[in-house]
């Protein structure tokens, strides 16, 4: 389960991430990221945490299959929340192939999309730098 403060719920937030954010497409999913915002709903002007939302349409499969894909994606994103910039909005949209994909395939596509959007690998190291 994704923590309450990290859930994307409002239609306007989904729209902002999809329309005004950057996107990275993979065979199983598309990730939309908007990291250039400040949330006016957070009191005191503090930076809100990163928030994530999921879109899994009927093209993925029946209700059972869609819920399975959503659970897998929530689990994967929860593990990667620390990589996201504070205040960012992320929308993960599952494509039809996600219904037949396993956990490892979804993780690979999510990591590749986040790497492209964030400009670093999913372990938090900047690309091109050697860790010592």
Automatic annotation (TrEMBL):
Q: Does the keyword DNA damage apply?
A: no
Biological process terms in GO annotation:
tRNA 5'-leader removal
User: Which EC number(s) are documented for this chain?
Assistant: 3.1.26.5
Q: Which UniProt keywords apply?
A: Endonuclease, Hydrolase, Nuclease, RNA-binding, tRNA processing
* CC per GO annotation: ribonuclease P complex
Pfam name, any one = Ribonuclease_P
Q: Which InterPro entries match?
A: Ribosomal_Su5_D2-typ_SF, Ribsml_uS5_D2-typ_fold_subgr, RNase_P, RNase_P_CS
Instruction: Tell me the function of this protein.
Output: RNaseP catalyzes the removal of the 5'-leader sequence from pre-tRNA to produce the mature 5'-terminus. It can also cleave other RNA substrates such as 4.5S RNA. The protein component plays an auxiliary but essential role in vivo by binding to the 5'-leader sequence and broadening the substrate specificity of the ribozyme.
Quote the protein name from its UniProt record.
Answer: Ribonuclease P protein component
The top of its lineage is: Bacteria, Bacillati, Actinomycetota, Actinomycetes, Kitasatosporales
């Amino acid at each position: 389960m994704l923590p309450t403060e990290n859930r994307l719920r409002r239609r306007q937030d989904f729209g902002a991430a999809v329309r005004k954010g950057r996107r990275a497409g993979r065979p199983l999913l598309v990730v939309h990221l908007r990291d250039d915002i400040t949330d006016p709903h957070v009191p005191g002007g503090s930076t809100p945490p990163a928030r994530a939302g999921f879109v899994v349409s009927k093209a993925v499969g029946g209700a059972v299959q869609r819920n399975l894909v959503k659970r897998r994606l929530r689990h994967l994103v929860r593990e990667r929340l620390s990589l996201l910039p504070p205040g960012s909005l992320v929308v993960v949209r599952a494509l039809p192939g996600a219904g037949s994909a396993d956990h490892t395939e979804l993780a690979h596509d999510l990591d590749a999309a986040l790497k492209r959007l964030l400009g670093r690998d999913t372990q938090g190291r900047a690309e091109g730098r050697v860790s010592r």
